[in-house]
Amino acid sequence: MFQALFNSLSGLFSFSRGLNTISNNVSNMNTPGFRGSDAFFENVRGGLGSRISGEGMRTEPGDIRQTGNATDMAVDGDGYFILRDRSGELHYTGAGQFRFNEKGVLVDTVSDYEVMGYDGDGNLAAIDLTPMRTLPPELTSKVNFKGTLTPSMTTPYTITSIDVFDSNGTARRLSAVFTRTSANNMPAEFNVVIKDSTDATIATHTLKFDTLGTPTRETNEFTAQFAFGGATPQPVTFNFGTPGGFDGIYSFSGGSVNVTATVADGHAILGYNDVAFDEKGVLQLSYSVKEKRQGPRLALASLPNESSLKLDGGRLVSGPSVQDKELGRPGESRYGRIVGRSLELSNIDLTREFADMIIIQRGYQASSRVMTVSNEMIEQLYNSTRGS
Predict the structure, then answer these.
(1) Within 10 Å of residue 214's Cβ, how many Cβ atoms?
(2) CB within 10 Å: which end of the chain, N or C, has fewer?
(3) Of 309, 330, 305, whose CA–CA distance to 319 is shortest?
(4) Alpha carbon separation from 242 to 151, 214, 246, 252, 259 (Å, rounded)
(5) What does the alpha-carbon distance between residue 78 and residue 240 come to, in Å, rounded to a whole number?
(6) Structure confidence by residue, pLDDT tens digits, 154-173
(7) pTM
(8) How much of the chain is in helix, strand and coil states, percent to nearest 5?
(9) Cα(295)–Cα(281) distance, rounded to whole angstroms?
(10) What residue spans of the chain are helical by DSSP H?
(11) How many alpha carbons fall within 13 Å on the CB side of residue 365?
């Protein structure tokens, strides 16, 4: 009877600890990257009751949900994000809730640990946005023309607001004037005058067309040197289309004159206006509609025997198997792809937790009942002894 009393007491302790595990799971149901745990019961040898032998982390991933934050990420498949603390020690997490700090380094929003990626030599390094905050100015090297010129046009046709960039990144406005110099028949010929913002002529060119109405090979483009203020002199090529093709200016009788100019390249100093990580974990930066650059690539870690892992510090995983980690890149080999602007939620299933809670409750009630009956039997034994 006394052993039954202690057995029931061990049951109460075990079920209480089991309830602690369930309560921790439920309380973290909205914690990104949280992995639930299960308490393992075992029999104490010799019929001495039960005890909790340990806990095991559930390895199945949680649902992935969009957040809209550019630096939030989830791993769809195998792999954990790698973090580095101030002492240089590495940690691992499935919660990709990151941000760029005031130094431009990608860090975990909770622990402030640096998120690891690969540098140009393939070594682990912090993902630093600082060298890519701005793009240096780029001068314009080419202007493309497209549209229609008719051999019957009687007045010059002018294109204004052709904005090119000098070596300092300053926008310089040019204009182009097309004047027919041939008779009113095919093939046509035009004089092209390039002017600056003061209406001064800075380049001239003779544009000729073949019988197909496309620019001739000798005149389809020309290059002029420009010196804008104190900027370095630069060559700018004016392209009128491919001979024999209709990708630029073409000339035919009838219709209306309509020519446009497109600056192919060049820009002022640009700051990035958007950052994102693609499915391979590569940082993508956008500076304008045309100007985009790639940054560092995320690193992932594969941890063997995930069931032996445990959560440490809220969202970090730890355990003996982290020493046997393998590093890799998202989307390669067995490593999962990155889902940007999203987070992996906890893998807690409330239905399962409630079912486990009912089992724990019944077990606790039964152990309590055994303790009550044992106590009553012991009391009855004592009473019968006094009666004799």
Answers:
(1) 22
(2) C
(3) 309
(4) 19, 7, 7, 16, 15
(5) 53
(6) 899 999 999 999 988 899 99
(7) 0.76
(8) 20, 40, 40
(9) 10
(10) 2-27, 350-387
(11) 6
